[in-house]
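Below is how a single chain appears once it has passed through the pipeline. First comes the sequence as given, then the structure the pipeline wrote out for it. We keep one example in the README because the format questions we get most often are answered faster by looking than by reading.
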Amino acid sequence: MFSALTRTLCAIALAAGATAAAAQGFPAKPVHLVVHNNPGSALDVIARQVAQRLSDDWKQPVVIDNRPGGGGIVGTDTVVRAPADGYTLLAAGEGPISILPALGVALPYAPQRDLLPIASLAELEFVLVANPRTGFRNLADLVEAARRNPGRYNYASAGNGSPQHFATELLKQKAGIHLTHIPYGGGPAGLAGVVAGDVDLMFIAIGVARPQIQAGRLVALAVGGQADHPLLPGVPTVASRYRDFTAGTGLVLFAPAGTPAAVAEKLAADTSRVLADPGLQSLLAAQGITVSAVTGPRLQRLLAADAERYQGVVRTAGIKPD
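Resulting structure:
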């Protein structure tokens, strides 16, 4: 007759064997990749590229499921509530993961408790663009005009708590200016508002804004990285005027917490392999997207550092959700 300890060890061994077997057969059915942004956003672009390549490798469809709304809360919560089996994943920016918690927004989930980081996907730099009718040709023009006319100018974002919202609020704090926030239901929608002249300006991913800049429908005032960007030569950085300023976002693949370790490891390995493809890297670089495949403890440390950084900026700048 088995002792209690023996029965426990057998149960653990059986569970480990079942988990390993599940990982070997994963995926045995379509995988759903939830994107908390609208189609056409930078996050959506890279999610679709990665999904297509994983579909080819796995011989199973990876279905993109766009769930915008609530600054990313809707899509994130969808994944948090899904079974923790690896078949429902989340492609997320920093908004619903690091920014909204830093702002103290009441969330139906806790990112560090309810989500398992699988792999980083990419880093995006933003560019600050303006509608030509504003007459702005550079950042200095904007700051001077906003100081002369407090509250006259407004800016679009992808929604309350989005990286675009955060970046502009930080610029306001550093420049000592007032701009009115006009939140949209996604970055592309906000950008369309700026192009149409309904809104004056916006921080947006360089790859998304570049065609409109080249067509003369937008003016690039400054880029959000620490150095000039190759896709926008000659456009200065915000940091050249306000030291240490950065504007951009990181994109990460998540699974629900509790996803079997073997499945999570396979997801991380397969995603990293896909991102290592030079062809994919060149394709995304042409759209202003820099691939960044980080996994495991290093990724967890990076996410923790991001959360701490945003909390610090919120405390220092007094940024609040609209």
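The first helix runs from residue 4 to 24.

See the next section for the split statistics.
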